[in-house]
Design goal:
The chain is mainly alpha-helical. It has four domains: about 160 residues, Rossmann fold (3-Layer(aba) Sandwich), CATH 3.40.50.620; about 160 residues, HUPs (Rossmann fold); about 50 residues; about 100 residues, Arc Repressor Mutant, subunit A. The chain is built from 20 helices and twelve strands. The protein has a three-stranded parallel beta sheet. Strands 4-5-8 form a three-stranded antiparallel beta sheet. It is elongated. It starts with 5 loop residues before the first strand and ends with a helix.
Length: about 475
């Protein structure tokens, strides 16, 4: 009988969910779902110095927003399991596979400086390994602070394992330090806690960032010290900035919350992140996937070894694709908070504009939006009175009379169209019918400027449709007045 595949995502509650963390969670989730397994969420909160109140809630919100649901009803928090970890540490101590270390931070610092100066491998020198049981007990009873270190076996030269992405990996144990597994405050380190938790949860595949690759031998040796089955490992490549440096806050937004607040759709972010280092294989050029589709096709074997560049322009392009394909009612609902921000930022009374008007604006902007937070920003003329000048209205070297002629044609046209026929199709057709084919610029430029007061805007027929017949005629008339 085949063993059920179980993966996990185990973030630390130290802040927002990083894009790299989202990718780790996504790949772990997809791998489990592909094989009808389970995906677990665990909170690794043993480093109390980095704990941020409310961070766990934000992590959960971000995962759920992205559509990633975990299968465990009760989320494991390592801070709730200290007795369990101490029990396993005690087992290692009794079997001489771990030992107490009383070295001060000052002594360890001097040790490292000496090793570096003499070009030695920087690792703990096992000063405390030779302490007798009596001395250890005496020092503990006196209240001396100590940590517990895992003793790397002396009889094993190499730790070799098969990484699901990188293939065979072999690391010499000479380079592996006797890492701390229990800190002086009674909390376990990541090395011990993640091994114990993965074993208790029957995790079969550990998918994580490549920064943990060098620690994997320590974890494998811990599994073997306990006599436990070792899970399979898959170490994901780094996410990189455009200059191929590690993706960091210094060069832009890196958290899921950042992109959510800027108006990225979860479908777009998940689609883009899925392709950061993974594809379906040679010959397949599909770019757009739903989460359900990814659950059926994701293969860890197709994850690349090389780092993946996070290209914000490509993410924007993908987000724009999803925005364009939204039903206008759904788009309106998703932009509610962004409209509120727009009106507040520009000191505009939102109550003057009803739902129908905002949906008209959205239908015009929809083709051009890269982020939902852009609503209204590039077309503020829909919401404010505008001012124009003769020079703004002039196309290249047009004479005043020619500018006035174009504006008067548009005004007469607008006046002739009945309210019931005031729609984009009729406006577009009629404007083209009165335009000299060889002088489109000389007609449409003055009309567009008169309607918007902006050098960049949607075409005149769309603007006129949004603001309505009365305001369109009034703005054209105001522009004509510039020449009187």
């Amino acid at each position: 009988m085949l063993k059920m595949i179980i993966t996990r995502f185990a973030p630390s509650p130290t802040g927002y969910l990083h894009i790299g963390g989202l990718r780790t969670a996504l790949y772990s989730y997809l791998f489990a779902k592909r094989y009808e397994g389970k995906f677990l969420l665990r909170i690794e909160d043993t480093d109390r110095s980095r704990f941020v109140a409310g961070a766990e809630e934000k992590l959960q919100q971000s995962l759920r927003w992205a559509g990633i649901e975990w299968d465990n009803k009760e989320i494991v928090r390592q801070s709730d399991r200290l007795d369990i970890y101490r029990e396993y540490v005690e087992k290692l101590l009794q079997e001489k596979k771990a030992y107490h270390c009383f070295c001060s931070s000052d002594r360890l610092s001097e040790m490292r400086k000496y090793q570096e100066k003499n070009k030695q491998l920087v690792k703990y020198d096992r000063t405390c390994l030779s302490l007798s049981a009596e001395e250890i007990t005496e020092r503990i009873e006196k209240g001396e602070k100590s940590v517990v270190r895992f003793r790397i076996p002396d009889d094993q030269e190499n730790v070799t394992f098969s990484d699901q992405i990188r293939g065979k990996v072999s690391i010499h144990t000479y380079a592996v330090d006797d890492q701390i597994i229990l800190k002086s405050d009674g909390f376990p380190t990541y090395h011990l806690a993640n091994v114990v938790d993965d074993h208790i949860s029957d995790v079969t595949h550990v998918i994580r960032g490549e920064e943990w690759l060098s620690s994997t031998p320590k974890h494998i040796l811990l599994y073997k010290a306990f006599g436990w089955e070792v899970p399979l490992f898959a170490h994901l490549p780094l996410l990189l900035n455009a200059d191929r440096s590690k993706l960091s806050k210094r060069q832009g937004d890196v958290s899921v919350e950042d992109y959510r607040e800027r108006g990225y759709l979860p479908e777009a972010l998940i689609n883009y992140v899925a392709l950061l280092g993974w594809n379906m294989g040679k010959g397949n050029t599909q770019e757009f996937f739903t989460l359900k589709e990814l659950e059926k096709i994701f293969d860890i074997q197709h994850v690349h070894k090389a780092g993946a560049v996070f290209d914000i322009k490509r993410l924007q392009w993908m987000n724009a694709h999803y925005i364009k394909n939204l039903d206008i009612d759904i788009l309106f609902e998703k932009t509610q908070e962004f409209w509120k921000q727009f009106f507040e930022k520009n000191h505009i009374d939102q109550e003057k504009f009803d739902e129908d008007f905002l949906k008209k604006v959205l239908s015009v902007e929809q083709e051009r939006l890269l982020e939902l937070s852009e609503v209204g920003e590039k077309n503020i003329f829909f919401f404010q009175e505008i001012a124009v000048s003769k020079e703004m209205l002039r196309w290249k070297q047009m004479e005043d009379r020619d500018v006035m002629s174009s504006l008067e044609k548009a005004k007469s046209l607008f006046e002739s169209i009945e309210e019931k026929e005031w729609n984009q199709e009729i406006l577009s057709t009629e404007l083209l019918s009165v335009c000299d084919t060889e002088k489109k610029g000389e007609f449409f430029w003055p009309v567009r400027i008169a309607l918007t007061g902006a050098q960049q805007s949607p075409p005149p027929h769309q603007v006129a449709w949004v603001i309505g017949k009365e305001k369109s005629i009034q703005r054209i008339a105001n522009a004509i007045d510039c020449f009187k």
